[in-house]
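REVIEWER CHECKLIST
Item 1: Sequence provided? yes
Item 2: Single chain? yes
Item 3: Sequence as submitted:
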Amino acid sequence: MKRLVVLLNIIMRQNLIQDFNTMTESQIERAACLYAKSLGMLAYKFTSPGRAGVPDRVFLTPTGGVFFVEFKCATGKLSALQKNEHRIIRKHGHDVYVAWDFNEAKKIIDEYIYE
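Item 4: Structure as written out by the authors:
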C-alpha cells in the first residue's frame, strides 16, 4: 500500500491527475501502468495494424500471467467493435477487462499479482 501512495503522489506532483474522480482515460491508463510496473509487471500498449477494437494494454505478470485491459473514463463507452474483439479474445481463453477508473484497474492488477 505504501508503494501505491508514493506512486500516486508522484503522479499528482507531475500534474498528470488533478482529481482522481475526474481522470481521463489516458490518465487512468498511465496510472495503472505505473502501478503495474511498480509490482514487476510488463504493460505493453496493444495495437494491431489492420484490426481495430483491440484492448488498450496487455499486461504480463512475473509469474507468467497474461491479461488485457481496455481503459474507459466514467463517460466512455465500449464500441460494438471493441465488444466483439473482447469476445474473440475470451473465446481463445484469455482474460479481458474494462477498467472504468483507477481503483478498478488497481483491483484487476492486484488480482493477478497476488494470486
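Item 5: Key structural point noted by reviewer: The first strand starts at residue 42 and ends at 45.
Item 6: Recommendation: ____
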